[in-house]
Amino acid sequence: MPEQDKNPFGRRATPGAPQPRPRSALLVVLVVAGALILFNSFLTQASVTEVTFSRFRAAVDNGDLLKSEPVTINATTVTGMVRTDEGEQTFVATIPPGYDPTELIDQLTEQGYEVGGQQPNPLMGFIVQTVLFIALFGGLYYFLFRRIGGGASSALNLGRNKVKIYDRKEMKTSFADVAGVDEAKEELREIVDFLKNPKKYQRLGGRIPKGVLLLGPPGCGKTLLARAVAGEANVPFFFMSGSEFVEMFVGLGAARVRELFQQAKEKAPALVFLDEIDTIGKGRAGPMSGSFGGHDEREQTLNQLLVEMDGFDASKGVIIMAATNRPDVLDPALIRPGRFDRQVVVDLPDLNGREEILRVHARGVALDPSVDLKTIAARTPGFTGADLENVVNEAALLAARRERNSVTMEELEEAIDRATAGLERKSRVVSDSQKERVAVHEMGHALVALNCKEIDPLHRVTIIPRGAAALGITMTRPLEDRYVVTEPQLKDQMAFAMGGQAAEEIYFDGVISTGAQNDLEKATDLARAMVSQFGMSDAVGPISLGRADPNAWMPGALPKVSAHTSELIDKEVRRLLDEAHIRAEKILTEHRELLNRLSALLIATEVIDGDELKAYFEGRKEIPDPATIRPTPKPEPASDRDTVPAEPTVAARAVSIPPAPPMPATD
After folding, report:
1. CB 357 within 8 Å of CB 385
2. Which of 2, 20, 537, 550 is the most buried (most CB within 10 A)?
3. Calpha distance 455→497 (Å, rounded)
4. CA 188, CA 209: separation in Å to the nearest integer?
5. How far, in Å, CA of 516 to CA of 527, rounded?
6. Confidence band (pLDDT; 50, 70, 90) for 442?
7. Which residues are catalytic?
């Protein structure tokens, strides 16, 4: 039998067949039994003290021999319990050759000792003890290694392939279940057509790609697309994660790769899907390899994968698909033509794609007729398919909790707020002074946003705590997906972020708080990106120095920037931040009275809708007197400890959707 058809235990790994019992189990039992024998021998030797016969006779004459324990005399030894300075000990003495023990027996009998003619044989007791220990170990072995399986049995089942095989009847996923990635579906329809009719492409001499690599952020539907390809083509689906190849023992990853490809060839036509292939496909002997030149198990697994992809013929009906969200770390030999010939990008869905995804996930949900999924899609830029599914599910749970018959826009809006900012924490008790500061901070963001043309329309301003740290949130509502961001838009974003701290300086006479921590981080990231990546600084010039690398500790990851250039970048970043801060201060100073009145209104209502706030700002609606507004009742704290905020340095955040620094479009 060829070597590649065997697993490390020497037997063919047939899918679905009962696996042979590992031989190592018997070895473990024998080792434990031997250890018990040695341990018992040690205890026996430690509990019995060998003495001379004369010393034993002296103990009898002195009365140190205990009458509570019998004295055993046989042809060669005499045994008894003796009282010593260290306590009671069992003495055993060898009877001298030619000595007649009759005299000793008579003496002991006269003194009232119980004398036995034969020493008890400890062998039977030892055998019983050993059998009990082995039985106990066997029971533990059965419970841990046979009943539990999985992680507990991994040490004895290393050779078993962990591939999950779904036959044709189990694959019911189709392209109708995948939405928002139309371009990716069109690319993969050709793969489906080949699996159904390979001769159509072979008659013209064309070569079908051996592998298809799906690229995209987590949650965008890469695995779902692979399942849909198998379901549409009606072929077996082999699923395995990259982390399941690598074990602590060298050679098992390569063996599993050989076994996977052998099984796929036997069931051709078939589709093999390797999820998170970057686990085993990282570049070798480079700064991203993780081994710093070492020849580790992951590298051997990758080498075997490269060999297998070279050695099989795609015309036999086996297609390899893989998914990763880190294409930058993959080995170039893995993604060259002839292995993964095609790379299909599964990116974040656009506005229409999000609407389609919402409709797919809302099929089994009772939606109210007033629900507008297009509006929900517009409110969720940057959301993945998994995020949108979670929004629909969370809205359904909220409606059920409120005992409603259908899901309304209110539940969907609340689900989006939960996904972007966290759960409302109305039970958190905030003092009046802190509440006033948070209201001023958030109203500063809102007024700056209303004065900046490039900021998306306001959606809602609230001072109800959310999530783990946010005491207040100012949310915007994007009108469209942005793929190109201009310099004025970035500067407006920085001024918007600086509005909270500027409002605190004006309202509280220069006394600021830690509430602007998150705002300053966002503004600094934007300013640094403008200077070092986007070429938006006259002093630095049109140059891109790369973005900050989270793996900056690795060799070659730090950008090559001189000290003078680094100092110049810092000065330009500071200049942009100062300009944004001055601009925010100027806007709020001009609208000081409006800042005071709207902050008081926000304290009373806790939530102000964006359209309503815009009407107040433009004078189309009169600002109500906060004294006429009934405050929202707060639950009583469970103890005195709850009357202070959970985090004394919590920051009130300004959330602009999408909150991440925008990136320029690429050609």
Report:
1. yes
2. 537
3. 11
4. 11
5. 16
6. very high
7. 442
Residue 519 buriedness (CB in 10 A; 0-12 / 13-18 / 19+): buried
Contacts of 536 (CB under 8 A, 6+ apart): 487, 490, 530
* CATH classification code of 164-284+296-345: 3.40.50.300
CATH 3.30.720.210 is held by the domain 47-144: yes
Peptide bond into 218 cis (omega under 30): no
C-alpha–C-alpha distance, residues 585 and 502, integer Å:
5
d(CA 183, CA 189): 10
Res 650 pLDDT > 50: no
445 and 504 Cβ atoms separated by less than 8 Å: no
Q: What is the spatial distance between Cα 188 and Cα 192, in angstroms, rounded to a whole number?
A: 7
Least confidently predicted of 208-222, 409-423, 536-550, 582-596:
536-550
Question: Crossing angle, helix 563-590 and helix 432-451, to 10 degrees?
Answer: 100
Please tell me the least confidently modeled range out of 29-38, 271-280, 466-475, 560-569: 29-38
pLDDT at 584: 96
Cβ–Cβ under 8 Å, residues 284 and 331? yes
Q: What is the CATH number that goes with domain 351-421? A: 1.10.8.60
Q: How far apart are CA 520 and CA 502, in angstroms?
A: 12
pLDDT of residue 105: 78
- 92 vs 210: CA distance, rounded Å: 80
The pLDDT confidence band at residue 632, using thresholds 50, 70 and 90, is low
Compute how many other C-beta atoms are within 10 angstroms of the C-beta atom of residue 90: 13
Least confident residue range of 93-107, 151-165, 427-441: 151-165
- Residue 156 gets which letter from DSSP? T
Which of 152, 131, 129 is CA-nearest to residue 141?
152
Q: How many other C-beta atoms lie within 10 A of the C-beta of residue 526? A: 23
Type and span of the H or E element at 435? helix 432-451
Tokens of 362: 């809302």
- The class of domain 432-549+558-628 in CATH terms is mainly alpha
In the chain, CATH 1.20.58.760 covers 432-549+558-628
Please, where in the chain does CATH 3.40.50.300 lie?
164-284+296-345
DSSP 113-146: --EESS---THHHHHHHHHHHHHHHHHHHIIIII
137-173 confidence digits (pLDDT tens): 777 766 655 544 444 344 444 455 677 888 777 778 8
Pairing of the two strands 340-345 and 211-215? parallel
Tokens 């994968």 locate to 305
- Residues facing 608 on adjacent strands: 461
Concatenate the DSSP letters of all residues of 475-491 into one string.
EE--SS--SS--HHHHH
